[in-house]
Amino acid sequence: NPEGPIRTEQIGQHVSWIVGILPYIEQPNAYRKFDQAAGAYAPANKPVRAEQIPTLLCPSHPNVVTDRTDDLKIALTDYAGCHHDSEAPINDDNNGVLFLNSRLRLSKISDGLSQTILLGEIRDVADSLGWVSGTRSSLRNTGELNDPTTFELNSYGAPNAPAEPAGSLRVGGFGSFHTGGAQFVFADGSMRFISTNIDREAYRKLGNRADGELFGEASNGW
């Protein structure tokens, strides 16, 4: 997007990191058909925006619905990139790995690839703008780890997180439909399950690519 911070609204270019990796997850046709210059919400991109990609869905998701209105379908993702280590608007000064217009070499993840969260699970939210949108719909932070026992039912009868007000700058944290925690992908490509019982300070550090802090014994709860 030309500038930040990024609000949860259908205004702006807002092309997500997921669009950028489509050729690498066996979706070359979707990548070719998506007009990045036009932006995530352009009418020309409606067919791709409605395309539900199985790779982006967790098998534990209880009910996958893409319909939002009669003439608009928005396909969702259960996985988001980590943009920051605390609750803050999505912007170009975030300290995660995937943030506004981020372009990082591995050397910039100086805390270590195995000590830095790249992606994590999220719960579908009522205001989701879909996987094409580089808003909180595909980005989260390690400011919180949602308790999977506090679901509310959405209008489709599935557990859901509450919506944010239109235009909100709040991003929110990761979460899942699993009992006890969520699955995460680290920058070295490894996958780990993080418990909701993890020390919150240790969890926060995992979202920062270059804080220079020791992880130490606070890692209990992986």
Describe the structure.
Strand 6 (152-153) and strand 7 (159-160) form a beta hairpin. The protein is built from 4 helices and 10 strands. The longest helix has 7 residues, at 200-206. By secondary structure, it is mostly beta strands. Mean pLDDT is 86; it is low at 148-159. 10% of the residues lie in helices and 18% in strands. The strands form 3 sheets. It has a 6-stranded mixed sheet with strand order 8-5-3-4-9-10. A two-stranded antiparallel ribbon has the order 1-2. The chain has helices at residues 17-21, 28-33, 46-49, 200-206; strands at residues 67-69, 72-73, 79-84, 117-121, 139-145, 152-153, 159-160, 173-174, 181-186, 191-195.
Short summary of the structure?
By secondary structure, this protein is mainly beta.
